[in-house]
Amino acid sequence: MPESMPQDACELLDADHIAVKHLFVEYARQAMAAPEEARDRQALAQRICQELTVHAQIEEEIFYPALREAIAAPQLLDEAQAEHQQAKALIARIRGMRAPDPRMDDLVSQLANAVEHHVKEERDVLFPKARVAPGLDLMALGAQLKERQDELVGQAA
Ligand SMILES: [Fe+2]
Ligand SMILES: [Fe+2]
Question: Which N-terminal residues, if any, form the signal peptide (predicted)?
Fold first, then answer.
């Protein structure tokens, strides 16, 4: 996606979902091809954690609060938030590891499964509700998400 092309909030968030899915697939490929070379996968694991952390943060700061206002489904957002907490607990454990650690592959695989489930809920349930919510400006929200994402990525660099 070119830098200049504006995306609505759901498109922007789903582009992140797809990007991180590719990283998980690459991680699994490397783990399969050379199980003993855990050190080589450490940087990839850290990148996955970093991208997911920024993604969760922009959802929590901008997207979820806007949805709480716009759709009458607080329990869905509570669930999504709880799933973020579970993912963050796994991320904290992975980030705390010194490579090579034999538990890393298992934790990354648990994280991949948790994220896959969570993303499915966002795609199948939350995004469709967001798209029909009256008064929710998804383009404006997309711009806000992008701005915050750029800021957080800049801070991490
Ligand atoms: Fe999420
Ligand atoms: Fe998401």
Answer: none
By the 10 Å C-beta count (0-12 exposed, 13-18 middle, 19+ buried), 132 is classed as exposed
CA 141 to ligand 2 centroid distance, Å: 14
Q: Please indicate, yes or no, if residue 39 is contained in any of the structural domains.
A: yes
pLDDT value, residue 55: 98
Number of domains the chain contains: 1
Quote the ligand 2 centre to 37 CA distance (angstroms). Answer: 30
Q: Which ligand is nearest to the CA of 145?
A: 2
Within-domain flag for 3:
no
The residue segments making up the domain with residue 102 are 9-156
Alpha helices in 2-156 (DSSP H): 9-33, 38-58, 64-70, 74-95, 104-121, 127-132, 138-156
Which ligand has its closest atom nearest to the C-alpha of 79?
1
Which residues are placed with Cβ below 5 angstroms of ligand 2, an ion? 13, 122
pLDDT beneath 50, residues of the chain: 1
Q: Is 2 part of any domain?
A: no
